[in-house]
Amino acid sequence: MIKFFRKIRYNLIEKNKTGKYLKYAIGEIILVVIGILIALQINNWNESRKQKQQTRTNILSIAKDISNDTVLQQRIIKSLKKEVTAGELLIPIMESEQQIIQDSLDFILKFNDLTTVYVIPDETNTWSLLKSSGVLSEFPDAKLLNMLQDYYNSYFNLSTNFSNSANESRLEIRKLKYELFSDSDHKKFFPTNTPKAPSKKAFEAIFNDEKILPLCRFIRGGAFYFEPKFELVNKKAHDIINYIHKNYKPIAS
Predict the structure, then answer these.
(1) Which of 222, 115, 221, 116 is nearest to 177 (CA)?
(2) Helices 142-180 & 18-95 angle (0-180, nearest 10)
(3) 251 pLDDT exceeds 90?
(4) 63 with 245: CB under 8 angstroms?
(5) Number of folded domains in the chain?
(6) What pLDDT is recorded for position 48?
(7) What is the tens place of the pLDDT at every residue in 215-250?
């Protein structure tokens, strides 16, 4: 093709057809410019396509992070419900004068439910990366961005408040459990798949220690307070997952 255009130029010059040569030269320049513009357009289209694919990949990665969050949130919600139920059984018995226990094994297992310590890992890898890279300013989905900002702010604040207020009392009652119960009594109900009620001394130790009842009240109250808050943030998580699954299909390999 280059030889073809070069031959035309030579013919026009040799025949002194200057006017036609200038027109030809201008046409050739225009063709070159058009070719450059087309190449730039194709490059821009490719870059835009790559950016959209990367954005979709990031969004799907966020959905995976949040899906992991929901598994932990559901475990916490289930455990908090157990703590509320445990408190409703234990506290009235400990507050009563007779302190009559109808089911010794059920009592001790529910007491043990109050010693759960929670660890909430950071599952914000993709979200943190997007925030630090500055691409959120060009995030293509304003609705999803608002949902994500609301979710992560809510979950971070809830996790921080919960960890700061919940674990200290649970660690204390767990420590007391090992101090109050003999090793043989403790092994009867924890950890084992076939729990048995400990000796009478274990129950007397619970009733006689002045720290136990206030801790049970505090843990039960905290569980009652935080359980609906985890339910709410869990709903926000599922709303985001459903929105992403509806609007962002996985990229075919």
Answers:
(1) 115
(2) 30
(3) no
(4) yes
(5) 1
(6) 56
(7) 999 999 999 999 999 999 999 999 999 999 999 877
Task: Quote the tokens at residue 177.
Answer: 């459990």
Residue 3 is assigned to a structural domain of this protein:
no
Neighbouring C-beta atoms of residue 58, cutoff 10 Å = 18
pTM of the prediction?
0.78
Residue 50 resides in a domain: no
Burial 188-226 (b: 16+ CB within 10 A, else e): bbeeeeebebbeeebbebbeeeeebeebbbbbbebbeeb
Residue 134, amino acid:
G
Q: How far is CA 157 from CA 80, 123, 153, 154, 174, in A?
A: 18, 14, 6, 5, 26
CA distance 176 to 173: 5
**What is the C-alpha separation between 237 and 142, in angstroms, rounded?**
17
Q: Which structural domain range is residue 216 located in?
A: 63-247
Residues 64, 67, 73: CA angle, nearest 5 degrees = 150
- Residue 252 in domain: no
Two tokens, residue 6: 């070069």
Whether 198 is covered by a domain: the verdict is yes
